[in-house]
Amino acid sequence: MQNLYCSNLLNCLSFHQKNVRFCTTLQLGEIISTYQEKPKELAQRIIEIRENINKQLAQCIIPNGCENCIYRNQEDYKTVKIRRIDLYYWYHCNCGCFYCSYRDETKGEFSDKVKEGNPLIYKTLEELYKKDLIDKNNLFVNFGGGELGVLKEYPKLVNLFLKNNVQNIWCETSGIRYSKELAKALEKGKAGLSIAICSGSRETYKKIKKRDKYEQVLKNLKNYVKAAKKFKQDQNNDCRVISKYIILQGFNNNKDEIDKWLLASKSIGIKSVEISMEFCWGIHTKKGQKVEDYNYELFEYTEQRCLELGLNLRKNDTSMAIMEQGTY
What we know:
- By secondary structure, this protein is of the alpha/beta class.
- It folds into 2 domains: 1-172, no CATH class; 193-328, pyruvate-formate lyase- activating enzyme (Alpha-Beta Horseshoe), CATH 3.80.30.
- It is built from 12 helices and 10 strands.
- Helix 5 (154-163) packs parallel to helix 6.
- The chain is globular and about 55 Å long.
């Protein structure tokens, strides 16, 4: 009988706004903590629960809550250290995107003020490094949640990972506030980022983001591209800084805006772009409805234009899965 192994449980540690868990898919699985412990207590709890899950999977026992998970793997069991850390634990942002999946929590509020995140997390990670639970040779870190540029402890976290030989830090950022720490990680070939600019003009950007920062974001993108180019040993530098476009009905779902976006991205040195349909807000408000035809048309058009302009195109995985099934 083949043993059970789930990389989403055994390889991962996910810090979210309200809890800590192993499962990075956020589907099912056990909640480890709701941030009530002290750092050493939380680190120990993570170790104990992880050991218990290891024992269950080694004996072909499916952990509670994981029975019906479509992402659960079934392959030969193996013991590994933590190789992925998700940091999605704050809401605060400096952008007011109407489609943000956290609008219910933030009530649409945003500001440029730098705020505290959760200092418990940094100290817990320090403890896990001390106990050698994190794989220093194969660690991937994913920053999401709110905006990293207004997270007070972001520089400290980046430096902790860099000091411990992180392989890659991936960041979703508004790009409004330039991060010297992110630029430093790019120069070392240790980071990548995506900025959802979603527009090719100042007017469209203002309508979507509720900020008049289009030129500033382009400037910061250009500087991040320069930082990534300083690392000469990596053949994937062209994919480390991504300009992203989320198709939003009534705002930018037209070829003219896509053309402007692609040309603006190319003009500042961007080599890789990403196209996405709006699935967070879409799933929330259009569940069960048919995916609009313009998504398919604009994906195809973007692919054609990228070939003509010599740009690398990434098609958002979740978008492609939703478009393939045809409904939200």
